[in-house]
Specification:
Oligomer: single chain
Structural class: alpha+beta
Shape: elongated
Number of strands: 13
Strand content: 15-25%
Helix content: 25-40%
Largest sheet: 7 strands, antiparallel
Radius of gyration: 22 Å
Order of helices and strands: HEHEEHEHEHEHHHEEEHHEEEE
Length: 383
């Protein structure tokens, strides 16, 4: 088996899950999030684009229902012993196979939690599943049960987070010599991803963001490349990845002499992220982080140029996003605890003056001050 953690690590995770299930009086949970299955068993696949679920009973026994294409994948990458295959066929309804399997497991009338809020659960599957189970058992939305357990990282997980952060720095080191007047976005992107893969890392759970000129104001990847001008701006958001654990970083880099507006927005980003570091510690909440960000940005007259979130938890994630559920936005009462890996980003997009500025990297929280995981300082990058 190609497991990234030892048996005792997985045993502790299963104990934590069953304890949480007991608190919520769940007889069983149906895991549809690939990251939940990976965290619990090591199961590593992109087969979640099709129907599959990991059934975990209150006694800790597990059964995977999946397709034949993932049978060997599960055997090779996980500690799951009981694997059941549903058959691809015309008009197949694997939720019926699931209901029959749950019946064989004596779960008629049970209280069953389901992970609905995941990319591994399409709307069609949810409707089919509810149709099959509504009169079979009591359904509980347990979308965030495992997600919350994954927030605090073990020592073994932190080692992968730290390795991911080193790869993130390597990617920036590979990019910087190519960021200059006439530099090609395609070459920059290739160098960054190449550095991570060459360092033993993985593909990220979503595409790197790269955009220059007016596209530097975009917060999402889009197709198309251009060469950098003598006076330009380049926004990059990327992540190093180790065993699917991500450490993200974000920068807007000035090509040529930065404008006065670039320097003004950079000063706002730097002031805000330093203030956020003071509340990125136990005793505060995710909402406190956002409120600190919003207060300083708004005091500087940047309310219409900032976003409504300023970061999120990171961990082992699968496509299409490396973002965890828990984000820094207003009203989020999630407490900050030690040993969380949290990405903080300052994003200011001034569309009126076509000026972008971003600043961000990943932190590991401690009992006191957070520890930045990047070896790069939070300085304005000018090429």
């Amino acid at each position: 088996m190609a497991l990234h953690f030892d048996a005792s690590e997985y045993a502790v995770r299963l104990e934590r899950l069953t304890a949480s299930m007991a608190e919520q009086k769940l007889d069983t949970i149906l895991l549809f999030a690939q990251e939940s299955m990976y965290w619990l068993t090591g199961y590593d696949t992109f087969g979640y684009c099709f129907f599959q679920t990991l059934i975990v009973k209150a006694d800790g026994t597990m059964t995977l229902l999946t397709r034949s294409a993932d049978l060997r994948q599960a055997k090779q990458t996980s500690n799951i012993e009981n694997i059941v295959i549903w058959v691809d066929r015309v008009n197949a309804d694997p939720t019926m196979d699931l209901r029959n399997l749950l019946s064989e497991m004596d779960l008629l009338g049970a209280r069953i939690g389901i992970e609905y809020d995941t990319h591994g659960m399409t709307g069609r599957v949810a409707r089919l599943l509810d149709n099959q189970l509504t009169n079979f058992c009591e359904i509980i939305d347990a979308s965030y049960l495992v997600s919350e357990l994954r927030l605090v990282k073990s020592a073994a997980e932190i080692a992968h987070v730290e390795r991911a952060a080193a790869l993130t720095d390597d990617a920036l080191d590979a990019a910087l010599p190519l960021i200059r007047a006439g530099g090609d976005e395609a070459a920059i992107l290739a160098a960054m991803q190449g550095a991570i893969l060459a360092g033993g890392g993985d593909y990220p759970a979503n595409e790197f963001i790269i955009g220059s000129g007016s596209d530097a104001l975009l917060c999402r990847y889009k197709s198309g490349r251009r060469a950098l001008s003598a006076k330009d701006q380049l926004t990059l958001e990327w992540a190093g990845v180790s065993a699917h654990y991500h450490a993200a970083m974000m920068r807007t880099i000035a090509i040529g002499e930065p404008s006065a507006r670039h320097r003004e927005l950079y000063a706002a980003c730097q002031e805000t992220i330093k203030a956020v570091e003071e509340v990125l510690r136990p005793g505060f909440t995710f909402g406190d982080v956002f409120d600190t960000h919003a207060r300083i940005m708004d005091e500087r007259g940047l309310a219409r140029h900032r976003l409504n979130a300023c970061g999120y938890s990171l961990g082992a994630r699968f496509s299409p996003s490396w973002m965890e559920h828990q984000m820094f936005h207003t009203g989020n009462a999630q407490p900050i605890l030690a040993d969380m890996s949290l990405f903080v980003h300052m994003i200011i997009m001034d569309s009126e003056r076509e000026t972008a500025m971003t600043l961000g990297h990943t932190y590991l929280t401690t009992a006191e001050a957070p520890r930045a995981l990047s070896r790069h300082p939070l300085e304005l990058l000018v090429r």
